[in-house]
Amino acid sequence: MGTLPRPARYAAHILLAALALAGCSSSAPPPAAGSTGSSAPTPASPVQVCTSLVSYWAKETLLGTTWSGLDWEQKGLSNDQYAIHEDAVAAGRAEERTAGRDKALELIDRFVAQRCAEQDGATRSSENWRPPV
């Protein structure tokens, strides 16, 4: 295999550049009628973050996945969130023994959502947590 002749290499470079530029162009659809189009997404509340994060890790622990063995800091949990995690895993394991894995995963979601809401995101006890600026 040899190299392409000079004109073919030049044409290939032009084609690649055109494809790269075409990929960078904005092809987003126009905003829907009546929308402002400039609104930024609303950041998640501490309760939503807590629920999502703790529920994810509790289910991973119940399932015994590769990354479930990380410590609470590596999982991004506060001390209070880790306590919720441990309680949720214990409740999930008990539910799994009596009702099966699917019911245990559902229980974890409900359990974590309730506890995160009760504790307003459970972020107060972490030395590492800082409020958003």
Can you offer a commentary on this structure?
It is a single chain. The protein has 133 residues and is mainly α. It has helices at 6-24, 46-63, 79-99, 101-118. Helix 2 packs across helix 3 (79-99), helix 2 runs antiparallel to helix 4 (101-118) and helix 3 (79-99) packs antiparallel against helix 4 (101-118). It is globular.
Descriptive labels:
globular, single chain, mainly alpha, 57% helix, 133 residues, 0% strand, 4 helices
Walk me through the topology:
Blueprint: H1 6-24, H2 46-63, H3 79-99, H4 101-118
Q: TL;DR of this structure?
A:
57% of the residues lie in helices and 0% in strands. It has helices at 6-24, 46-63, 79-99, 101-118.
Proportion of helical residues? 55-70%
**Can you count the beta strands?**
0
For this structure, the quaternary state is single chain
Number of helices: 4
Structural class: mainly alpha
Rounded Rg? 24 Å
Task: Note the run of SSEs as H and E.
Answer: HHHH
Distance between the termini: 58 Å
- Low-pLDDT windows of residues: none
Q: How much of the polypeptide forms β-strand, as a percent range? A: under 5%
Main beta-sheet strand count, sense and barrel state: none
Described by the principal axes of the CA atoms, the overall outline is: globular
- Averaged pLDDT: 79
